[in-house]
Amino acid sequence: MMAKSNNSVLRLVRAFRAFSYKVTYTGYSDPLKHVKLLVKFGKPGDVVDVGAGQQQYREVLSTLGKYVSIDIVPGADLIGSVYELPFENGSADTIGLFMVMEHLAEPKAAVKECSRVLKKDGVLLITTPQYWHFHSWPNDYFRYTKEGLRHLCNENGLEVIEMRSMGGPFLVLFHVIDVNLKLYGGSFRRILVYNPLALIFNFLDFVFFKHQDKRAESDSVGWAVAARKRG
Predict the structure, then answer these.
(1) Considering the entire predicted model, what is its pTM?
(2) What are the strands of the beta sheet with 65-71, ordered from one edge?
(3) pLDDT in tens, 21-42
(4) Among 16, 89, 109, 135, which residue has the least CB neighbours within 10 Å?
(5) How far is CA 163 from its chain centroid?
(6) Number of H helices, E strands in the chain
(7) Domain 28-167+216-231 belongs to what architecture?
(8) Which conformational region is residue 230 in: left (phi greater than 0), alpha (psi within -120 to 50 degrees), or beta?
Protein backbone atom coordinates (compact mmCIF):
# COMPACT_ATOMS: atom_id res chain seq x y z
CA MET A 1 0.00 0.00 0.00
CA MET A 2 2.86 2.36 0.83
CA ALA A 3 4.41 1.91 -2.63
CA LYS A 4 1.07 2.65 -4.32
CA SER A 5 0.64 5.73 -2.15
CA ASN A 6 4.12 6.99 -3.00
CA ASN A 7 3.47 6.42 -6.71
CA SER A 8 0.24 8.42 -6.49
CA VAL A 9 2.02 11.29 -4.79
CA LEU A 10 4.80 11.18 -7.40
CA ARG A 11 2.25 11.28 -10.22
CA LEU A 12 0.52 14.21 -8.55
CA VAL A 13 3.79 16.11 -8.19
CA ARG A 14 4.65 15.47 -11.85
CA ALA A 15 1.21 16.62 -12.91
CA PHE A 16 1.58 19.84 -10.91
CA ARG A 17 5.04 20.38 -12.36
CA ALA A 18 3.84 19.84 -15.94
CA PHE A 19 0.92 22.21 -15.38
CA SER A 20 3.25 24.77 -13.82
CA TYR A 21 5.66 24.85 -16.73
CA LYS A 22 2.79 24.89 -19.23
CA VAL A 23 1.35 28.01 -17.60
CA THR A 24 4.72 29.72 -17.39
CA TYR A 25 6.05 29.00 -20.85
CA THR A 26 3.00 29.21 -23.11
CA GLY A 27 2.65 32.97 -22.88
CA TYR A 28 3.15 35.25 -25.86
CA SER A 29 6.95 35.20 -25.53
CA ASP A 30 7.17 31.42 -26.00
CA PRO A 31 9.32 30.81 -29.14
CA LEU A 32 7.22 27.79 -30.18
CA LYS A 33 4.16 30.03 -30.42
CA HIS A 34 5.99 32.23 -32.90
CA VAL A 35 7.42 29.36 -34.91
CA LYS A 36 3.82 28.18 -35.39
CA LEU A 37 2.87 31.68 -36.55
CA LEU A 38 5.87 31.95 -38.89
CA VAL A 39 5.30 28.61 -40.59
CA LYS A 40 2.41 30.01 -42.62
CA PHE A 41 4.95 32.29 -44.33
CA GLY A 42 7.26 29.38 -45.15
CA LYS A 43 7.51 27.87 -48.61
CA PRO A 44 6.39 24.22 -48.87
CA GLY A 45 9.05 21.75 -49.95
CA ASP A 46 12.47 20.99 -48.50
CA VAL A 47 12.87 22.38 -44.97
CA VAL A 48 16.16 22.79 -43.10
CA ASP A 49 16.20 23.45 -39.34
CA VAL A 50 19.62 24.99 -38.61
CA GLY A 51 20.90 24.80 -35.04
CA ALA A 52 18.03 22.43 -34.35
CA GLY A 53 19.13 21.38 -30.87
CA GLN A 54 16.52 18.98 -29.50
CA GLN A 55 14.48 19.39 -32.71
CA GLN A 56 11.51 20.76 -30.78
CA TYR A 57 10.21 22.38 -33.97
CA ARG A 58 10.35 19.24 -36.13
CA GLU A 59 6.60 18.56 -35.93
CA VAL A 60 5.68 22.13 -36.82
CA LEU A 61 8.17 22.49 -39.67
CA SER A 62 7.32 19.08 -41.09
CA THR A 63 3.93 20.47 -42.10
CA LEU A 64 5.80 22.31 -44.86
CA GLY A 65 7.45 19.22 -46.33
CA LYS A 66 10.60 17.13 -45.99
CA TYR A 67 12.36 18.10 -42.76
CA VAL A 68 16.13 17.93 -42.13
CA SER A 69 17.84 19.11 -38.95
CA ILE A 70 21.45 20.23 -38.70
CA ASP A 71 23.56 21.16 -35.68
CA ILE A 72 27.18 21.25 -34.56
CA VAL A 73 26.50 18.60 -31.90
CA PRO A 74 25.31 14.98 -32.31
CA GLY A 75 21.59 14.31 -32.30
CA ALA A 76 20.56 16.15 -35.45
CA ASP A 77 20.04 14.50 -38.85
CA LEU A 78 23.25 16.16 -40.07
CA ILE A 79 26.29 17.50 -38.26
CA GLY A 80 27.50 20.78 -39.67
CA SER A 81 27.97 24.52 -39.31
CA VAL A 82 25.65 27.31 -40.38
CA TYR A 83 28.69 28.92 -42.00
CA GLU A 84 29.18 25.93 -44.32
CA LEU A 85 25.83 24.25 -44.86
CA PRO A 86 26.16 20.87 -46.63
CA PHE A 87 23.64 21.76 -49.35
CA GLU A 88 23.86 22.89 -52.95
CA ASN A 89 22.99 26.41 -54.06
CA GLY A 90 19.24 26.96 -54.28
CA SER A 91 18.27 23.61 -52.78
CA ALA A 92 16.03 24.51 -49.80
CA ASP A 93 12.55 26.01 -49.80
CA THR A 94 12.49 27.05 -46.13
CA ILE A 95 15.27 27.44 -43.56
CA GLY A 96 14.70 27.94 -39.84
CA LEU A 97 17.08 29.74 -37.47
CA PHE A 98 15.22 29.52 -34.19
CA MET A 99 16.91 31.02 -31.12
CA VAL A 100 20.25 30.58 -32.90
CA MET A 101 21.29 34.06 -34.07
CA GLU A 102 22.37 35.23 -30.61
CA HIS A 103 24.89 32.36 -30.48
CA LEU A 104 26.59 33.22 -33.79
CA ALA A 105 29.85 35.16 -33.79
CA GLU A 106 29.37 36.00 -37.50
CA PRO A 107 25.62 36.50 -38.03
CA LYS A 108 26.02 38.21 -41.41
CA ALA A 109 28.00 35.25 -42.76
CA ALA A 110 25.35 32.87 -41.43
CA VAL A 111 22.47 34.73 -43.07
CA LYS A 112 24.47 34.92 -46.31
CA GLU A 113 24.99 31.14 -46.24
CA CYS A 114 21.28 30.53 -45.63
CA SER A 115 20.47 32.83 -48.54
CA ARG A 116 22.84 30.82 -50.77
CA VAL A 117 21.05 27.57 -49.96
CA LEU A 118 17.55 28.97 -50.41
CA LYS A 119 15.75 28.64 -53.72
CA LYS A 120 14.36 31.69 -55.46
CA ASP A 121 11.39 32.84 -53.35
CA GLY A 122 12.57 30.53 -50.55
CA VAL A 123 11.98 31.78 -47.02
CA LEU A 124 14.24 32.20 -44.00
CA LEU A 125 12.41 32.04 -40.65
CA ILE A 126 14.10 33.54 -37.59
CA THR A 127 13.34 33.88 -33.89
CA THR A 128 15.89 35.65 -31.71
CA PRO A 129 15.91 37.70 -28.48
CA GLN A 130 16.28 41.41 -28.00
CA TYR A 131 16.27 40.85 -24.25
CA TRP A 132 17.52 37.71 -22.53
CA HIS A 133 20.12 36.80 -19.95
CA PHE A 134 23.61 35.67 -20.92
CA HIS A 135 23.44 31.98 -21.78
CA SER A 136 26.54 30.42 -23.33
CA TRP A 137 25.29 27.35 -25.21
CA PRO A 138 28.07 27.20 -26.32
CA ASN A 139 28.56 30.98 -26.69
CA ASP A 140 26.35 34.06 -26.50
CA TYR A 141 27.32 37.06 -28.62
CA PHE A 142 24.49 39.39 -29.69
CA ARG A 143 20.98 40.77 -29.15
CA TYR A 144 18.92 42.10 -32.06
CA THR A 145 16.58 44.97 -32.79
CA LYS A 146 14.04 44.78 -35.58
CA GLU A 147 16.06 47.19 -37.73
CA GLY A 148 19.24 45.19 -37.17
CA LEU A 149 17.52 42.03 -38.38
CA ARG A 150 16.02 43.83 -41.36
CA HIS A 151 19.48 45.12 -42.29
CA LEU A 152 21.03 41.63 -42.08
CA CYS A 153 18.33 40.28 -44.38
CA ASN A 154 18.48 43.11 -46.88
CA GLU A 155 22.27 42.86 -47.12
CA ASN A 156 21.97 39.22 -48.10
CA GLY A 157 19.26 39.30 -50.77
CA LEU A 158 16.32 38.68 -48.46
CA GLU A 159 13.17 40.78 -48.19
CA VAL A 160 11.40 40.83 -44.83
CA ILE A 161 7.75 39.87 -45.30
CA GLU A 162 6.82 39.46 -41.63
CA MET A 163 8.29 41.01 -38.48
CA ARG A 164 6.56 40.53 -35.13
CA SER A 165 7.55 41.30 -31.58
CA MET A 166 7.71 38.32 -29.21
CA GLY A 167 6.41 40.36 -26.29
CA GLY A 168 6.46 43.96 -25.10
CA PRO A 169 7.81 45.79 -22.02
CA PHE A 170 5.79 43.93 -19.37
CA LEU A 171 7.01 40.59 -20.66
CA VAL A 172 10.57 41.94 -20.73
CA LEU A 173 10.14 42.81 -17.05
CA PHE A 174 8.72 39.37 -16.35
CA HIS A 175 11.72 37.67 -17.92
CA VAL A 176 14.09 39.88 -15.93
CA ILE A 177 12.47 38.37 -12.83
CA ASP A 178 12.44 34.91 -14.39
CA VAL A 179 16.08 34.60 -15.38
CA ASN A 180 17.75 36.79 -12.76
CA LEU A 181 15.85 36.76 -9.47
CA LYS A 182 14.59 33.17 -9.44
CA LEU A 183 11.87 33.96 -6.93
CA TYR A 184 9.83 30.87 -7.59
CA GLY A 185 11.93 28.24 -5.77
CA GLY A 186 10.51 24.70 -5.92
CA SER A 187 7.62 23.35 -7.95
CA PHE A 188 4.85 24.23 -5.51
CA ARG A 189 6.16 27.73 -4.88
CA ARG A 190 6.29 28.13 -8.66
CA ILE A 191 2.58 27.33 -8.85
CA LEU A 192 1.69 29.66 -5.97
CA VAL A 193 3.93 32.61 -6.85
CA TYR A 194 5.57 32.35 -10.24
CA ASN A 195 2.69 31.10 -12.36
CA PRO A 196 0.29 33.85 -11.23
CA LEU A 197 3.08 36.36 -11.90
CA ALA A 198 3.48 34.96 -15.43
CA LEU A 199 -0.25 35.24 -16.09
CA ILE A 200 -0.45 38.78 -14.69
CA PHE A 201 2.48 40.11 -16.70
CA ASN A 202 1.28 38.41 -19.86
CA PHE A 203 -2.17 39.99 -19.35
CA LEU A 204 -0.71 43.46 -18.66
CA ASP A 205 1.53 43.23 -21.71
CA PHE A 206 -1.50 42.47 -23.88
CA VAL A 207 -3.65 45.22 -22.35
CA PHE A 208 -1.06 48.00 -22.59
CA PHE A 209 1.03 46.95 -25.58
CA LYS A 210 -0.91 44.22 -27.43
CA HIS A 211 2.35 42.27 -27.05
CA GLN A 212 3.83 44.49 -29.73
CA ASP A 213 6.57 47.07 -30.10
CA LYS A 214 4.52 49.97 -31.46
CA ARG A 215 6.18 52.96 -29.79
CA ALA A 216 9.08 54.93 -31.26
CA GLU A 217 11.20 53.79 -28.31
CA SER A 218 10.17 50.56 -26.68
CA ASP A 219 11.34 47.18 -25.48
CA SER A 220 10.75 43.74 -26.91
CA VAL A 221 11.52 40.26 -25.63
CA GLY A 222 12.59 39.30 -29.13
CA TRP A 223 11.63 39.11 -32.79
CA ALA A 224 10.07 36.59 -35.13
CA VAL A 225 10.98 37.23 -38.77
CA ALA A 226 10.10 35.75 -42.16
CA ALA A 227 12.28 36.91 -45.07
CA ARG A 228 11.90 35.82 -48.71
CA LYS A 229 14.85 35.44 -51.07
CA ARG A 230 14.64 37.90 -53.90
CA GLY A 231 14.87 36.60 -57.45
Answers:
(1) 0.86
(2) 78-79, 65-71, 45-50, 92-98, 118-129, 222-229, 158-165
(3) 555 555 799 899 999 999 999 9
(4) 89
(5) 13
(6) 8, 7
(7) 3-Layer(aba) Sandwich (3.40)
(8) beta
